[in-house]
């Protein structure tokens, strides 16, 4: 039952080939330490939800909610069931270095 320390693999870490016991490397496909690659963004002809906007901006979902609430991000409010982002407006916001345009 006892395995040697070189045979053990845990939490997505594997011992680097030819390395010492202290050198560890991430397993394949483990970009953020979770082992699951992020899904692709929805197409530009669809409205993006908060999670898609967060992936595009490389920010947390809570950051996107806060910036949408304070008017920093260009957002569309849809009745009582949430907020959505138009991809073109979000891309233009990023290209303008985050300057909010006042005209709609």
Task: Provide a compact summary of the structure.
The chain has 104 residues and is α+β, with helices and mostly antiparallel strands. It contains 3 helices and 4 strands; from the N terminus they run E-E-H-H-E-E-H.
> How does the overall form come out from the CA principal axes?
globular
What is the helix fraction of residues, given as a range? 25-40%
Question: How many beta-strand runs?
Answer: 4
Radius of gyration: 21 Å
Q: Tell me the structural class.
A: alpha+beta
**How far do the termini sit from each other?**
67 Å
Report on the structure:
This protein has 3 helices and 4 strands. It is of the alpha+beta class. The protein folds into 2 domains: 1-37, no CATH class; 38-104, no CATH class. The strands form 2 sheets. A two-stranded antiparallel ribbon has the order 1-2. Strand 1 and strand 2 form a beta hairpin. Helix 1 crosses helix 2 (61-69). The relative contact order is 0.11.
